[in-house]
Structure formats: C-alpha cells, structure tokens
Amino acid sequence: MKLINTLDAVGHVLCHDITRIVKDVEKGVAFHKGHVVKEEDIPVLLSIGKEHLYVWEKDSNLLHEDEAAEILYDVCKNENMTRSETKEGKIELFAGCDGLFVVDVDRLEAINSMDNMMIATRHTNYPVKKGDKLAGTRIIPLVIEKEKMDEVKEVAGPEPLLKLLPYPKRKAGIVTTGSEVFYGRIKDTFTPVVVNKLSQYNIEAVEHVTVNDEMDNIVKAIKELKEKGVDLIVCTGGMSVDPDDRTPGAIKASGAGIISYGAPVLPGAMFLMGYFEDGTPIMGLPGCVMYAKATIFDLVLPRVAAGLKIEKKDLVKLGHGGLCLGCKVCTFPECGFGKGV
C-alpha cells in the first residue's frame, strides 16, 4: 500500500472503501476497495476531502483489512451462526438458531490484547434468539502484518472462540412438595411457573407428582421420575433450612450427588444443583422462583437446557453480578443480572 496524490491516481486500485457522508442525506460507500480510479472519479474524490489516496501495492507480508477480518471471523464462528458481509475490515456474527451463546473469555481477552484488532461479544452463557447479533470483529488499520494474524490463529487454536449451543428437545419431571398443596389447602401456583420457564428452552414437563412433606414420599417420587427416564428433574417447595423442609435431604437420599446446596445469587440463595450418576440433572428450586421475575433458575436453566454440566465453580462465579435489583419493569435478560465481568 502506498499513499499518492489523488490527481495522480487514475489507473490505480483503491485498497479500501471510501465513504461519502452528506448530513441527513447519505452515508455510504462511494468507492469500493478494488475500484480502478477513472478520470471522472477525481472531482468526486476531491469533493469528499480525499486529496491523497492509499492504493494497493501487493506485499506478501501484509494483509488487507478485509482479508484479516476473515481470519478473525474464522476463529470465532461455529456452524450455528450467520455473518454479515465484510466491510471496511468488519464482520458481524448473528445467531442462526435459538440457543445458549458461549464465549471462551480467556482466549477472547488474549486476542483483544493484541494491537490493531478487536472482537466484541455479548456476555457468555447468554440465551439468544435466532437473528440476534452475537459479536463484531474489526481490523483497525487498513493493512496488518500477516505474521500477526498467524499469531491470532495460534492463540485461538482449533476450537471456535464462540459457540452457539441449540436446545435439544428434553423431557422434565416435576416434584411438588408441601402438605398444604398435597391436601388441597392452597392452590399450586409454583408448578405453572416452572412449566412455562422450561418450555422457553424446548423442555416439556411430561411428569408431575405432588407429595406431602414426608421424606420417604419425596424420595419415592424422585426415584419414580428417574425410572421413567425423564431428562431433568425439578423439585419445588421445602428448600429452606427449617426443620420441616426436607427436600434437600430427599434429593440426596434419592441417589443424586449434590453439586451445591446454596448459591451466591439473590433471589435464589437456597438453590440446589445435583446430578445422578448417569448425568441426569436435578434441581431444587427455592420459593422465590414462584414470584420473582428473574432468579437463579433463570441463570442456570439455559445452561442445563443446552447440555452444559454445572459445576460448583460456575455457581460461585455468579456471585459477581448475581444481585437482582428487582426493577419495577423487569428487562431480564437485557440487564446486568447474572453477568459478571
């Protein structure tokens, strides 16, 4: 690439797009990269302030911004994403389906630590809809060293930097505990909330059992759902530390391994996450899920639906950003709840 006087540019090839902006009228590309400058182009170029032009000189050690942008796109993409056209060294990525958007934050930060390039994304573990914008990549200068882009590929490695995990069809079983519900003293208003939230992630509640507060009955209900082959078990009620709240103990007695009883999230501190030996997840939901618009359940469920294994460290990390402000108009997930830096 070399800089020449615009008056001397006839016959030369532009190495970048040239934008024309007319306030309140037009903003667009007047001349595209690769355009061969003609005599009649000179007055137009001068009128938009281009007294000098960068024209392309092929150099095997340099890449044009658009060529380099393709490399950034390649290290980001997976098969469930679509893309924009390449323009001025920039490519945007979009969701090709509903799913959980996952970012390898460490590798993202490593690439963004390099000069003259950037990748901006949504937060990791973010549930998205088909068509949502996921990320944007940009090469800052007009040309960049090929060696630097080779380093990007090395840092990124063979796995995509970004993933979009679709929600496969799953079946859930729900155990509602509480003598007050079992004996009909109050209406069950918890289960409809859970069923609705499950359905948002392609999970159908196919089994529902209501039991009283007796430990043996809760254990029996959980085991029966497990034997019926559901993909996920959700238990509601009896999740506090009161002596007559026996659901956490029943979940453990049913044979599930407890990942954590308790999470640094409000609302949702009394949440329980566990797994059976075959990998079937089981969750104990605190009462806040019944009435709060966004809780720990909304943070964990998309990950479970996408097939991610929840570990204790995943719940621990939720403490940073895990305080819901209880806004009068809830905008979750378009807010900071559950999104630590």
TrEMBL record:
Reaction equations catalysed: adenylyl-molybdopterin + molybdate = Mo-molybdopterin + AMP + H(+)
Function: Catalyzes the insertion of molybdate into adenylated molybdopterin with the concomitant release of AMP.
EC number: 2.10.1.1
Protein name, entry field: Molybdopterin molybdenumtransferase
Keywords tagged on the record: Magnesium, Metal-binding, Molybdenum, Molybdenum cofactor biosynthesis, Transferase
Family matches, as Pfam families: MoCF_biosynth
Domain named MoaB/Mog: residues: 173-306
Organism (species): Anaerocolumna aminovalerica
GO cellular component, one term: cytosol
Family stated for the protein in its record: Belongs to the MoeA family.
GO terms classed as biological process: Mo-molybdopterin cofactor biosynthetic process
Pathway(s) this gene product operates in, as recorded in its UniProt entry: Cofactor biosynthesis; molybdopterin biosynthesis
Source superkingdom: Bacteria
Gene3D superfamilies: MoaB/Mog-like domain
GO molecular function, one term: molybdopterin molybdotransferase activity
Cofactor: Mg(2+)
InterPro entries: MoaB/Mog-like_dom_sf (IPR036425), MoaB/Mog_dom (IPR001453), MoeA-like (IPR038987)
